[in-house]
Design brief:
Elements (H helix, E strand, L loop, with lengths): L1 E7 L3 H10 L5 E4 L13 E3 H7 L6 E5 L1 E5 L4 E5 L5 E4 L1 H14 L3 E3 L2 E7 L2 E6 L2 E12 L6 H5 L3 E15 L7 E5 L10 E7 L2 E7 L2 H10 L7 E15 L2 E2 L2 E3 L15 H16 L4 H6 L1 H19 L2 H11 L2 H10 L5 H9 L2 H10 L1 H7 L1
Parallel strand pairs: 1-2, 1-11, 2-8, 5-13, 11-18
Antiparallel strand pairs: 3-7, 4-7, 5-6, 9-10, 10-11, 12-15, 12-16, 13-14, 14-15, 17-18
The protein binds flavin-adenine dinucleotide.
Length: 371
Amino acid sequence: MKYDVLIIGGGPVGNYLAYLLAGDFRVAVVEKKGSFGGKACTGIIGAESFERLGLPKDAILNKFRGAVFYSRIRSFEVERKAPQAYLVDRKILEKTLAEKAIRRGAEYYMATTFIGFRNGRAVLQHLGKEFEVEATFYIGADGVNSAVAKAIGARTRAEFLTGFEVEVVGDFSRKDFVEVWVNKDMNPDFFFWVAPVNEGLARVGTFGSVDALARFLKVRMLKPEAVVEFKSGVVGFGTRRPWVRGNVALIGDAALQIKPTTAGGIVFGMVCAHALKNALLEDNLDAYEKACSWIRRQISFGLRFRRLFRRLSQDAIEEIFDVLGSEEARAIIEAQADFDDHLKTAKAILRRPRLLAKLIRISPSIVRALL
Ligand SMILES: Cc1cc2nc3c(=O)[nH]c(=O)nc-3n(C[C@H](O)[C@H](O)[C@H](O)COP(=O)(O)OP(=O)(O)OC[C@H]3O[C@@H](n4cnc5c(N)ncnc54)[C@H](O)[C@@H]3O)c2cc1C
């Protein structure tokens, strides 16, 4: 049996790619797990991207039209009339995409693990039995610890962080607002998020250490005994190259196509899936990386932002909150902020002379990092 494309990894990106390709190619997906979902992931996806990518509406659990930002002593909020982001159920998202791909002709090998390549074929294992599958192209969509990336000798320069997330029962009456808490005294590695599923349940998490999350739950007055789900998972902020070697390409977390600003990776991977589809249609895999240049620019902006965050003291963060919480800044964020284009959002703020001057006064490195 020879396929045109064998996708290794049936996460959101692998399944989305399978769905995109199945009409034009003979496609198969290999997924290590026996069922979809289960990965640690809050599931926040920008509303505009969700609609543009045509993702299944059944997966939407909640819609956010605003955010409240808290530092150690300050807070401000931004709000829009229309929803800006959706909270999705990962299992429904992944399974529905897989079902749609199968309806278009894709074939799935569940509970099957990719082991490596041998003589141009993929070596797979299902319930202890090894077998080989041949394809013209192989795509590694197998996540941050990609075995495909290792098999092609891709080089990684990245910061790896473990994320910890709970689903906790509490009072979240403003269920259409996400909370973002930036407090380096509580967690020097990352911000905390509170994303309501509904008025009585929220996904709360951070990256760095589980102790930091425990401290935050206490401060946010959420009881550890009210936690109904706990998950952890790893993200990688940095670069993994090349994305293409011979007839093998990497996509999604396997290629570290993830925002270092927020650790969101679903949209970037899916945007790259379109670029990969076009490259495959042209029979020119090398065109894929070039077509993802927008994503590469966003990632490199995110890495600069991340380095800046690492260097900033909490006192400097308090001053930045002062600037971003001003009426002028909030008006810009409300009118122009783009959930998936953080570079555009930063530029919109820095274009205002008064805000620019205030940020330079806090530290010129802020402006250097953001431009
Ligand atoms: C705590 C946390 C919160 C997050 N929150 C968000 C969020 O709110 N929004 C967002 O956009 N992103 C979020 N992310 C990031 C997001 O989870 C990833 O970017 C996204 O899952 C990437 O999708 P993917 O399909 O590339 O990889 P994965 O989702 O990792 O899927 C890879 C698939 O490959 C399979 N696989 C692995 N190895 C093999 C193998 N050898 N053989 C066969 N199959 C294999 C795995 O079982 C898995 O199903 C979060 C991450 C963490 C850790």
